[in-house]
Amino acid sequence: MSAVQVSFEISPIFQRITSGLDPEHARAEVTARLHAQSAAVPDELIDEITAEYQKVSTMLADTGVLYSGSCFGQFDGDWSMGSLTIGVQPLSYRDPEVAIAGMTKILAAEHGRHAEVSAITLPCGRATLVIRQSPDLRLPAEFSDSGEDLPIDVAQLQAFIPVPPSSVPGAQTLVTVTFSTPSTDHWADYCALLVPLLNSMRFRPAQEAELGAPAPEAAPSVAGGSAPAFG
Beta-carbon neighbour count of residue 129 at 10 Å? Predict the structure, then answer.
C-alpha cells in the first residue's frame, strides 16, 4: 500500500480543533474564540457549542485524523456552528468504481429513508456522498426548561473517496470528509462552503510530497474568493 498525501483548500471560517480537551478546557477555548469575535453569546448557547466542540476534540484524541476544524459565527444575525473532519483509513479494493458501488449500496441500505446516498464524481475521483439529519446531539436536562434531555437535530454530510490508483499507484486508502452542524437552518450556507472544499481535494504519493512543499494535511490552503457572510 502506497502512502497518500491529501491536499485541499478550506474556507477561513474554520479553525483547527485542539484534540483531547476536557469539558473545562473546551469551554475556555470556545469562550476565547467568541470573545475574539467581540461576541455577546448567551450562556446556554455557549454550553451547546462547548458540548459539540468537546465531542469532536475527544474523537480526535481517540481516532486521529488529518484535519479537524470548527466554526462559530453568524449567518444574517443568527448564531451558527459546525465541525469538519478529514481522515484516512486503509481500504482494500482493485477498482475504485467497484468500491464506490459497494459502499453506496451498503450505506443506502444502512440509513434507509433517513439519508440521501448517491455516487458522485469529483475532480479527485469518484465518491459516495451521504447526507442525513438525526438527533444525535442532546441538550442535558440541567440546561433545558423541561428538566429532561432534549434531542437536537444534527445535519451531516459525508463523502467517502477511495484514492484512485491513477493518482497514487498502489493506493489502498479511503479518505472520508465529514461535516456536522446542529444549525440546520443554515444548511444551504454550509453547502456553499463544502462544495469548493470537495472540489479542491487532490491526492499524490507521500514520497513526492517529501521532495516538495510541506504536507497540505498539516497546513491546508485557505480558500479565497466569495463565501457566505459569516462573522
Answer: 20
3-state secondary structure 104-157: HHHHHHHHHHHEEEEEEEECCEEEEEEEEEEEEEEECHHHCCCCCCEEEEEEEE
Q: What is the pTM of this model?
A: 0.76
Whole-number Å distance between alpha carbons of 70 and 16: 6
Residues pairing with 158 in the sheet:
130, 178
Residues 184 and 162: beta-carbon distance below 8 Å = no
Contacts of 94 (CB under 8 A, 6+ apart): none
Contacts of 133 (CB under 8 A, 6+ apart): 114, 153, 154, 155, 156, 184
> How far is it, in rounded angstroms, from Cα 3 to Cα 15?
26
**CB contact at 8 A, 162 and 126:** yes
How high is the mean pLDDT in each 10-residue block of the chain (231 residues)? 88 86 91 79 86 84 80 86 91 95 96 90 97 71 69 88 96 95 91 96 81 45 56 62
